[in-house]
Every structure is written in C-alpha cells, then in structure tokens.
Amino acid sequence: MICSLNPPWKTMLSLLLTTMMALQTMAMLEVNVPEQPVVVLHGRDAVLNCSFSPASAFNLSDLSIFWQLTDTKRSVHGYWGERDQLVDQAERFANRTSLWPVQLGLGNASLLLSSVVVADEGSYTCFVRVQDYGSAALLLLVAAPYSKPVVTLESETNLRPGDELALTCVAYGGYPEAGVIWQDGGGRNLTENITTSLVANEEGLFTMTSVLTVVLEPNSTYSCGLFNPLLGEEGYAFVTITGQNMAFPPVALWVTVGLAVCLLVLLIALAAVCSRKIKESCEEARREAEEAKELEEEESKTGVGARRRAGDESGGSAYSLIQEVGGKNVMGFKEENASLEDIFNGLIGPLKMNVGKDF
Ligand SMILES: *[C@@H]1O[C@H](CO)[C@@H](O)[C@H](O)[C@H]1NC(C)=O
Ligand SMILES: *[C@@H]1O[C@H](CO)[C@@H](O)[C@H](O)[C@H]1NC(C)=O
Ligand SMILES: *[C@@H]1O[C@H](CO)[C@@H](O)[C@H](O)[C@H]1NC(C)=O
Ligand SMILES: *[C@@H]1O[C@H](CO)[C@@H](O)[C@H](O)[C@H]1NC(C)=O
Ligand SMILES: *[C@@H]1O[C@H](CO)[C@@H](O)[C@H](O)[C@H]1NC(C)=O
Ligand SMILES: *[C@@H]1O[C@H](CO)[C@@H](O)[C@H](O)[C@H]1NC(C)=O
Ligand SMILES: *[C@@H]1O[C@H](CO)[C@@H](O)[C@H](O)[C@H]1NC(C)=O
C-alpha cells in the first residue's frame, strides 16, 4: 500500500537499479592501481601504475586511456587511435607525461610523470576502455626532506635562571608539514608550550619555525626533533645552556673583560715605571735645585737665568716643569712621555693621583 502511494520513489529505485546494472555490464574491465598512496620525492619522476586485464586479446586501435585529476576532471594524459591525445591536457602537465606504448598491449597503462612538484599532489583516475571500460583512482603524495633544524636563542645576553626564554627551531625546504618534538635533557616532552608556523615558498616547500618558551634552569639542554610524516625522523638539533653561559653569555662581554684586564695590567706596569722614573728625576731635581739655588745666588749678579740653564742640562725633561709647579710635581714626566700622560689623563685619573702621591 505504501509503495503504491509513492510511485515516484518506486520509479527512482528501478531507474537506479537499471543504471547500476548497465554500469556493471559495461564496467567489466578490471583496472588496478596501487591501493597505498604513491609517495614521490619532490623533483623526481613518478610512475603511476595502472594495469588492466581484458577478457581476450585486443586490437590496439580499440584501446582508449584517459588519465585525469579525480577532483577537477582535468586531463592529465589521453590516448586513443593508437596515439597520445594531448589537446585538452592541463597546461602544467605539458611535456611531463608519457605512457609506455610497448606496454599498452600487455595491459600496462601506467603513466610516467616527470619532475614531480608539490602541486602535483592529489588523486589521479585511470580510465581504460577496450570494448568495455573500467577505472580506478590512486593518490599521489609528494615528500621533500627538511634541512637540518637549527635552534637559536631569542637573546643571549644576561641570561639568568628563572628567566623566560624563547628558543626557535627552524628547518626549511621540506614537505609536508613536519611534526616537532621539543625535549629537555632528561627527555621530558616540552611540546606543550610551542608555537609552530609554516611558510610555503613558490614551490610549495615549507619553512617550519617552532618557538618554545621555557623558564630557564641551570645547565639545561633543549632539543628540537623533526618528524616528516612521509619520510620518518628527519633530524634534530639542540642547545645546551650552561651555568657559565648564564653568568657571561656573550662573547662580546668576555672580550670586554679581557681588554679591561689587559689595560689594567698595562697601566700598573706603566705606573711602576713612571713612578721610578719620576723619583729619579725628582732626586736629581732636588740636587740640581740646590745647585741652582747656589748658582742663582752666585749669578744674581751675572744675570743668567737659573731655569733656562737647568732646563738645558736636563734635556728638556722633567726638571723644568717640576721647578714651575714648585714641588707639586704631578706632571713631572710630561715632556718626555707626553703620550703616556695622555693615556693617564684620559683613562685613569685616580691612579694618576696615586702616582703623584709617591713623591
Ligand atoms: C608499479 O608496478 C611494478 C610492477 O608491478 C612494481 O614493481 C612497482 O613497485 C609499482 N610501483 C608503484 C609505485 O606502485
Ligand atoms: C608498466 O611499465 C613500466 C615500464 O616498463 C614499468 O615501469 C611499470 O612498473 C609497469 N607497470 C605495471 C603495473 O606493470
Ligand atoms: C585492428 O584494427 C584495424 C582498424 O580497425 C584493422 O585495420 C586491423 O586489421 C586490426 N588488426 C587486428 C590484428 O585485428
Ligand atoms: C614542450 O615541448 C615543446 C617541444 O620541445 C616546446 O615547444 C614547448 O614549449 C614545451 N612546452 C612546455 C610547457 O614546456
Ligand atoms: C608550559 O608553560 C606553563 C606556563 O609557562 C608552565 O607552567 C608549564 O610547566 C609548561 N609546560 C612544560 C611541559 O614545560
Ligand atoms: C608531547 O606532548 C604533546 C602535547 O602534550 C603531544 O601532542 C605529543 O604527542 C607528545 N609527544 C610525545 C613523543 O610524547
Ligand atoms: C653545570 O655543569 C657543569 C659541567 O657539567 C658543572 O661543573 C656545574 O657545576 C653545573 N652547574 C650547575 C648549576 O648544575
């Protein structure tokens, strides 16, 4: 009773059944493709296997083969009338596809696709018709290995235990998206606190950047491992942050410290040399000053300048100046060692005063 109330439904069912039977009678040709996805490395050639087994020996002129993209039905490669038919071939497959003519009679309709790129990834359908026809679809996947990952620190200065720090792990030129596993030295999974981003280049290959945020502990190791779902483990990189690094992380600081130490040693040596020299000239000066005094007393009548004479005798060095400042002989070595004095003046005032105090 219900059936008679629903004639359209009944009609549709019978129509469907006849269509299915028609398809079944027509699709007698068995066509086989790989069930597992075909994985091809970026840049390499791919063989998309497709084989058929006709009921009996056949005339090649009766054979038609259509390879097309399953989703868009765009033509990848056509063959009938005993030759390739590429008029409606999608442009990006131009000059990249071929069949094996000798193999066709043996039921091998496999397609050679050269220089596979990321954009080739997808489902391909192989249609074969002799008298009957059949079809099957396979999945092509493209893989590219990533470069060895590199881990860098956000900033290498003034690291202290307890600081929050961003570690960046970068690898490029790979496909598809890789899995990232961050671990510490003890193998603890740190993958919870990461941010991973992917950027594709014009070839569709990815640069993968994964940022891990950690609270720094002394002597810690952080490793970044890459896992390509098609190629397996790809490599890993790690950084170790030692206690030393935390105290004086940058090379620049070490250089600075080293230079400062060198300079200090140099200055102390200079101070020692200079103070000895000044002491010597000081004693000489005192001696000569006494002489000069006597001379002055003697010569006060002859009119010869004591200063000039003393200066002549000491070759223009300490003596004349010591005389001028009247015993406060801070600059005693000025004329002889002008450049050293500049260093003292410019760099280390207090030390200069100490030198002066020695005498
Ligand atoms: C294609 O078929 C040949 C012969 O059956 C087989 O050796 C080869 O592994 C197949 N290739 C793929 C990618 O399935
Ligand atoms: C078809 O022939 C080609 C070329 O000899 C070969 O590489 C491929 O594996 C063959 N495929 C099958 C399914 O036999
Ligand atoms: C194949 O077909 C062509 C054209 O239909 C015909 O001329 C030829 O004789 C056939 N060859 C065989 C072996 O049947
Ligand atoms: C394909 O090859 C032909 C001849 O070698 C050439 O003229 C044509 O430009 C090529 N097409 C592409 C898209 O490379
Ligand atoms: C992730 O970060 C939170 C907050 O910074 C922290 O409490 C947690 O321990 C971290 N997880 C791991 C696995 O390091
Ligand atoms: C690490 O932790 C992340 C997030 O908690 C998880 O998705 C991942 O499967 C873990 N990996 C391993 C190797 O334990
Ligand atoms: C870090 O490691 C070094 C050498 O492995 C060790 O000498 C130092 O004591 C360690 N520091 C800490 C804080 O664990």
From TrEMBL:
Locations listed in the record: Membrane
Segment forming the signal sequence: 1-27
Species of the source: Dissostichus mawsoni
GO biological process: regulation of cytokine production; T cell receptor signaling pathway
Record keywords, A-Z: Immunoglobulin domain, Membrane, Signal, Transmembrane, Transmembrane helix
Record protein name field: Ig-like domain-containing protein
Transmembrane residue ranges: 251-273
SMART domains with a match to the protein in the record: IG
Cellular component terms (Gene Ontology): external side of plasma membrane
InterPro entries xrefs: BTN3A2-like_Ig-C, Ig-like_dom, Ig-like_dom_sf, Ig-like_fold, Ig_sub, Ig_V-set, IgSF_BTN/MOG
Keyword Transmembrane applies: yes
Principal subcellular localization: membrane
SUPFAM superfamilies, per the entry: Immunoglobulin (SSF48726)
Residue ranges of every copy of the Ig-like domain listed in the record: 8-128, 149-224
Pfam families documented for this protein: C2-set_3, V-set
Renumbered residue ranges of the record's region Disordered: 290-315
GO molecular function, one term: signaling receptor binding
CDD domains: IgC1
Taxonomic superkingdom: Eukaryota
